[in-house]
Write a structure and sequence with these properties.
globular, single chain, five-stranded mixed β-sheet, 184 residues, Immunoglobulin-like
Length: 184
């Protein structure tokens, strides 16, 4: 009975040692060397809009893909974006996303598009009102990634373009039924 217990214990220790490397988390340096940010796009999108009284709140957005440049699958990657007006230290807004979860990114593959949108932005009345709005200044976004067990890694700092991706609702004209005389 003692021999069986010792054998089972030894087998459990060997199995643990074999599977332990697969459970290890990625270090900060490994994470930084494992991914490359590609297909970066920045713009401004609507957070709030109403036609009357006119109000339009635009927020900065960054979209990108991540390419796995390592020889191991990438999984459990969180992204954080911090948006600031250029030259200022106070944050305009931020965004967090636990993006890569169920489906790992295999070596050499690229992720789906990942989009991070600031929670704060700039208010105006119409799209045209932003052209001369003194509060609509240049914004930069710092993009960070983190894997379980690692610290945040700065992936890059990007200037947000002044492209506005918003079209106001078009006025709807009521459809009237043709009159009896029009039908004849």
């Amino acid at each position: 009975m003692k021999k069986i217990t010792i054998s089972v214990l030894m087998l459990a220790i060997v199995a643990t040692l074999l599977f332990l490397p697969a459970c290890q988390s990625m270090s900060t340096e490994e994470l930084k060397k494992s991914l490359e940010v590609v297909d970066i796009q920045t713009k401004w999108v609507s957070k709030e809009y109403r036609a009357w009284p006119p109000k339009l709140v635009l927020v900065p957005v960054i979209s990108f893909r991540v390419k796995n440049i390592s020889d191991k699958p990438l999984n459990y990657i969180n992204f954080n974006a911090i948006f600031r007006f250029q030259g200022e230290s106070k944050d305009l807004g931020s965004s967090f996303l636990a993006a890569i979860r169920k489906e790992p990114i295999m070596p050499g593959q690229t992720s789906e598009v990942i989009t991070l949108k600031s929670n704060y932005g700039v208010e105006g009345k119409t799209v045209q009102s932003f052209e001369n709005n003194p509060y609509w200044k240049t914004v930069v976004v710092k993009l960070f990634a983190r894997s379980k067990g690692s610290d945040y890694v700065l992936l890059g700092e990007y200037e947000v373009s002044k492209v506005i991706d918003f079209k106001p609702d078009e006025a709807v004209t009521p459809v009237t039924e043709p009159s009896e005389q029009t039908k004849k």
